[in-house]
Structure prediction request, 134 residues.
Amino acid sequence: MIGRLNHVAIAVPDLEAAAATYRDALGVTVTEPEDLPDHGVTVVFVQLPNTKIELLHPLGEGSPIQGFLDKNPSGGMHHMCFEVDDILAARDKLKAEGKRILGDGEPKTGAHGKPVLFVHPKDFDGTLIEIEQA
Ligand code: CO
Prediction:
C-alpha cells in the first residue's frame, strides 16, 4: 500500500536559521522561503537525493503548526508524509486497522496540490502521519 517517503516536516521557530543549518552544516540545497497562505505556513524545501525535508514556520493567525511550536519552542519533527497510489483505499485500510483520520476524513488538497489526509499521532507511535496520493 505504502510508497516513497515523500517528506519529513520540521516545525522551526526561525526559518532562516534552520535553512542555514541544512545549507551550511550539511551542504544541502535549500529553496527560498515560500508562503503557503492556504496552509498557514511558510516553507523551505531541503532537497535530498531520496526525499525532502520541509522546514515549516507559522504564517498568519491560526497556523496549524503554532500550537506545536508553543509546546516545542525550539522546534521539532512535525510529521512524516508517505505516498500512496489510492488515498481512499489507504484511508479505508487505516480506518479498518483502528487508526483515526483527522478532520472529516475526506482528502484535502495538500501543500503540493495533491490529495492528502492526516492520521492521529496517538495512533501512530506519537508521530503525525500524512498520506499523499502521488
Ligand atoms: Co506535509
